[in-house]
Every structure is written in C-alpha cells, then in structure tokens.
Amino acid sequence: MESNQLAYDADPRIRRLEHTLADGRQLIYFDDADTRLSPERAPDLRELTPRPANAMMRQDALTGEWVSIAAARQSRVFLPPADLDPLAPQSPGNPSEIPSHYDVAVFENKSPSFGPLLTDGTAPHGLDDLDGIGLGRTRTSVGRCEVVCFSPEHEGSFGTQSVSRARTVIEAWAQRTAALSSLPGVEQVFPFENRGEAIGVTLHHPHGQIYSYPYITPRTQRLLASIDRYGPTLFGDILANEQRGERVVLRGEHWTAFVPFAARWPVEVHLLPHRQVPDFAGTSLDERDELAVLYLRLLRGIDALYDSPTPYIAAWHQAPLHRGRDDIRLMLQLTSPRRAVDKLKYLAGSEAAMGAWIGDVSPEQAATSIRAAIERVDAANPAAPGWTASCQENQPVTDQAGASDPGEGTPA
Would you call 322 a catalytic residue per the annotation? Predict the structure, then answer.
C-alpha cells in the first residue's frame, strides 16, 4: 500500500530526541520549550523477551467490520503501585519502559492492538480488499500503537499539566501524526486519552495513546457517508451553526468548543478548528499554541463539574489518509459517562445492542453547567481568562478541590 507523506511545520522551540529500546522499539523524547533537562539520555540496558506475535484481524460478516484479536494484551500491567510504574523513568528498583527522566516521551507499545508489522505478506490488504464481505476472512493487524507519556509523575492527566507541557504534548501529536501517516499500511491515525478507572484505565500515570489503523474506522466511514449525503461543507456549516447558538463553552481565535446539538453522553464536548485542517500535522504553530491554553481550560472545567475528577475519553478524530481529506476536519470529541456526582451512564440494551442512543441530559443544560465550571476554574487562576499560549509560560496546576457538589441530576 502506498505511503502518505504529510507536510508538518515543526516547532523549533521543542527538542525531539530519538532513541531505541532494548528490544528494538522506537522511543522519542519531546522536551518542553522551557526544559531543564540535558539532551543526554541513558540507554535502555534491560534484557527483554521478544515481542509477542502480531495480532490478527477477523471480519464480522454481519457488519463488514474488522476485529483485532490481540490476546497478548490480556496480561498487561493493571494499576501498579507508584514504585513499579512502567511509564515512570527507570530506577534501580523499577525497570520501566523509559530509561531516562523526561518531559514527554512517546514509545511503541510492547503488546499493541495493531503492528509492529506494516505489511501483510499472506493476503491483500488494501481498502478495496478490506471493504469486501466474506466468511472466515482474516488479515494481519498491521499498523502501530504508541504510548504518549504526558509527564514523569505517577498520577495526573492532560488537564493537570502546565501550558508549556500541554504544548509539548500537542507538538508530539502533530509530529507523530505526520510520521505514522507515512508508514505503509496505515490508513488512519488516532490520538486519544482515556482518563479514570470508570473508563477502564489500567495505569494512573498521565498518558494517552496513538493508534494507527490499517483501515478506515467504522465511525469515520459513517462520517464519510454523511458528507456524501450532505455535501463537502458539513464541518464548516456545523461550526457556524454552533457558534450562533447557546451551546458554545469556549471560543478563541482559532478554535471553538461546544456541546453538540445531538449529544449522546451526559458530558460531551466537541472542539473544532476554525479552518479546514484534516489532522494535527496540518495545524499551524499559532493554532497549537492557542490549543494548549483552551484545551487545558476545557479539561479543568470538566473536572470542576463535581468535587472529584471526571472520567472521560478525549478522542481526536482525524481524516483518513486516502479519503475525505478535503472535507473531514480535525475534531476533538470528549465524552464522559458521569451523569451525576455518584452515577454513571451505562450502555445498556438500546445503546449497546442497537446503537440507538437515549440522552440523559439536555445539551443546552450541559453547556450551561460546563461554562459555569470553566468560569470557576478561570476565577481560581490569577492568570485566567487571559492565559498566555506562549510555550515560555509554565502555568501552575489549578486546585479544584473546592468545586461545589451539584448532587443529583444535571452537572452544575
């Protein structure tokens, strides 16, 4: 399959250092613009067992969707203590995945859902082949999965980072999107963060992941079908419509965040750039600078809805490599199942079995609550709401322990 080389405007303020782990996996350090770290990093001297066999995909003939069977993931680490954190810098008692201290680190997952193979030597692997339907069809799960460590600290999330650190992570997303998109066999690149045990996280360490799929995901295929039916202006029209309405929660020069008109989850926020850009690799330095500030304000506001951190999935939807790049726009879809201080929305019969959603909170009420929570966070931060997007500015983490408890019903 042909590769796709994306244009990427790298930020010269953020240093990138490439290394190799003991078993051959790639490790990349991204140093903050205001880093205090030396560029010298220790080698990985561990003696590691070989990587597990590549996962295999099986096709569901009822839907045409491909399911990756990655059995090696069954034995991954589950909520380890701080002294055995596999994402912390290595120490004499902790032979973790990262040999040196770091600001942000990205490395290949040892037991990935896709990869490390990038070609399938046993069968065709193009989009035309994958779109076909048949019984007993299998293909190799080619691609790559990477772990993005936001901080060397044991606990936290993206929202607990400084503006400078947030900007470094965003730069890592942009650089890795460009690099992964150039790999043969990759059709779509997906950065995301799972936050909270209610979501199913297995590590408290602040981190996210990047999946590089060998196909166009089912959600994106449905989006492409909607664009075919509506027209190529779908994203621009959605943004303009939301900017005129009451569901906007944050707006800057380059980005707008809003609760969508047909929100599925009790907490759901979409964030769009103001111009047509298909993925992080296509964003400008100014857009990334502003995003570091706006995204932190959004996440801290989501955490301030209640008096304890909010579980969420932060999913950065990007255009696939070979379809829809002029029409699909980079978009954050942040969702949380938390519908009250002590209640979660579970996907039961209608949603899980039929894909027919029922919303528990009106999007307008949710937007009002999220705006109020962001205002509380801004008021608690002496620099808010005019936080600087400069990478030279290293803002402290906002203490949200005093957020009010809205009790039952709609978040407040």
Answer: no
